[in-house]
């Protein structure tokens, strides 16, 4: 039986009821809470320590991890271009390995002999937390109440909180499960469990519904150095201020809302609505700057890495050699990704209207339709002849054998047609 349990604590419904539950079910063990400030806002963090203590915790550590979250987790994922399921910018996924690692560090400091989290047995976060525990504390047992207790729904959890005098923000009317940080805000549950139900306007907390966005577009200029965002509209900003500024600008114009039916790691599909206003602007700008400065084959190689990096982050495999290797590759590709991109925001849309870099591979002297003296157009004939050589050889061989290409047919008929016909 553990004597000291360190719990990853958010102050939300799930972790709030875990404190008294651990006390009841683990022989009055000491419960130490670890709450991470990753930019979810002062309102959510206000009184979180007092709330933990009032729920029965013996101590609660509130750790400011915002700067590290942006610089060591968000920015590497951005530079990799990682996007999961075509849309998701991985806001929750990136945060869990950082929180779990800090939880382990506190556990070592206080001499804990068990770790606990409030992740459900249906979700991805249980994997993300426990893979981090395995990497940094393979000797400590893990307590996951959602896999042990008889609480089966958020309604049950609210009833448990009420019976134990634990104050929570969730209600039976607004029963969304939310996760917030400096990068995004996610919404799940409630009406969103019907994938055909439109999200209500009062769901959004970071972004304006497009019907309430300004009627005039706004231009914003994002500056990068070696793939890392460094400025907004010409003003150099630290990581925290830069992302806060872009969240405000993008949110005002309703940018960065994703409504996604995603593939959870545990095998089921779920529906979530994500608000990532600043992050969506950064992804658009960064991708465009890469298009300007990277050659075709480097871009193609990086595009192969991006979905694998996204899977890695989504699955919680952050503390792996695989991720370190990808970061090394991406780091080389980003050495010349410096410059600015101008975006125009309007009613939820983000359009690229300008880009510049001293490392740009675009050179007007080569692509102009006007007169130039740097490109010999006659060289193209020899290039095309060599480029087409495999096709010419194949066609000549077919002619020698008396074969002609099969006629073009509809896809449904293709299986019934021979690939080649004898002349």
Fill in the keyword field for this structure:
single chain; 423 residues; alpha/beta; Rossmann fold; Argininosuccinate synthetase, chain A, domain 2; five-stranded parallel β-sheet; five-stranded antiparallel β-sheet
Explained architecture:
- It is a single chain.
- The protein has helices at 13-25, 42-45, 48-54, 66-80, 91-110, 125-136, 154-163, 239-252, 277-293, 296-314, 321-333, 364-367, 379-387, 389-400, 411-414; strands spanning 4-8, 30-37, 59-64, 114-116, 142-143, 177-180, 185-188, 218-225, 228-232, 235-236, 257-263, 269-275, 339-346, 349-356, 403-405, 420-422.
- It is an alpha/beta fold and 423 residues long.
- The protein has 3 domains: 4-70 and 85-173, 3-Layer(aba) Sandwich (Rossmann fold), CATH 3.40.50; 184-294 and 336-365, Argininosuccinate synthetase, chain A, domain 2 (Alpha-Beta Complex), CATH 3.90.1260; 378-422, no CATH class.
- The strands form 4 sheets. The protein has a 5-stranded parallel beta sheet, with helices on both faces. A 5-stranded antiparallel beta sheet has the order 10-9-8-13-14. The chain has a 4-stranded antiparallel beta sheet with strand order 6-7-12-11, with no helix packed on it.
- Helix 4 (66-80) packs across helix 5.
Question: In short, what is this structure?
Answer:
This protein has 15 helices and 16 strands. By secondary structure, the protein is α/β, with parallel strands linked by helices.
Give a topology summary:
Layout: E1 4-8, H1 13-25, E2 30-37, H2 42-45, H3 48-54, E3 59-64, H4 66-80, H5 91-110, E4 114-116, H6 125-136, E5 142-143, H7 154-163, E6 177-180, E7 185-188, E8 218-225, E9 228-232, E10 235-236, H8 239-252, E11 257-263, E12 269-275, H9 277-293, H10 296-314, H11 321-333, E13 339-346, E14 349-356, H12 364-367, H13 379-387, H14 389-400, E15 403-405, H15 411-414, E16 420-422
Parallel strand pairs: 1-2, 1-4, 2-3, 4-5
Antiparallel strand pairs: 6-7, 7-12, 8-9, 8-13, 9-10, 11-12, 13-14, 15-16
Helix pairs in contact: 1-7, 4-5, 5-6, 8-9, 10-11
């Amino acid at each position: 039986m553990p004597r000291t349990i360190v719990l990853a604590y958010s102050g939300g419904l799930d972790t709030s009821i875990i404190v008294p539950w651990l006390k009841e079910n683990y022989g009055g063990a000491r419960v130490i809470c670890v709450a991470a400030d990753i930019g979810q806002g002062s309102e959510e963090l206000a009184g979180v320590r007092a709330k933990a203590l009032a729920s029965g915790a013996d101590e609660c550590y509130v750790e400011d991890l915002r700067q590290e979250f942006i610089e060591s987790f968000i920015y590497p994922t951005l530079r990799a271009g990682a996007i999961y399921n075509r849309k998701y910018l991985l806001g929750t996924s990136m945060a869990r390995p950082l929180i779990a690692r800090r939880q382990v560090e506190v556990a070592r400091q206080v001499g804990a002999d068990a770790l606990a989290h409030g992740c459900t047995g249906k979700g991805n976060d249980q994997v993300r937390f426990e893979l981090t525990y395995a990497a940094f504390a393979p000797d400590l047992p893990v307590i996951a109440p959602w896999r042990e207790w008889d609480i089966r729904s958020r309604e049950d959890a609210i009833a448990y909180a009420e019976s134990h005098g634990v104050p929570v923000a969730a209600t039976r009317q607004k029963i969304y499960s939310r996760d917030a940080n400096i990068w995004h805000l996610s919404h799940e549950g409630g009406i969103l469990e019907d994938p055909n139900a439109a999200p209500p306007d009062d769901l959004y907390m970071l972004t304006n519904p497009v019907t309430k966005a300004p009627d005039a577009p706004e231009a914003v200029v994002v500056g990068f150095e070696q793939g890392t965002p460094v400025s907004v509209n010409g003003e150099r900003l630290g990581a925290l201020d830069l992302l806060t500024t872009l969240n405000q600008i993008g949110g005002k114009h309703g940018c960065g809302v994703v409504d996604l039916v995603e593939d959870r790691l545990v095998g089921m599909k779920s529906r979530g609505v994500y608000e990532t206003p600043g992050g969506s602007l950064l992804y658009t700008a960064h991708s465009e700057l890469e298009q300007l400065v990277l050659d075709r084959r480097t871009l193609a190689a990086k595009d192969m890495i991006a979905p694998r990096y996204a899977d890695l982050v989504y699955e919680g495999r952050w503390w792996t050699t695989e991720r370190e290797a990808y970061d090394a590759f991406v780091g080389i590709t980003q050495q010349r990704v410096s410059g600015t991109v101008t975006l125009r925001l309007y009613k939820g849309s983000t359009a690229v209207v300008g880009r510049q870099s001293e490392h740009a591979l675009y050179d007007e002297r080569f692509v102009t339709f006007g007169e130039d003296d740097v490109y010999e157009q006659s060289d193209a004939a020899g290039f095309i002849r060599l480029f087409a050589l495999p096709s010419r050889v194949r066609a000549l061989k077919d002619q020698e054998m008396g074969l002609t290409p099969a006629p073009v047919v509809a896809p449904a008929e293709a299986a019934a047609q021979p690939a080649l016909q004898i002349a």
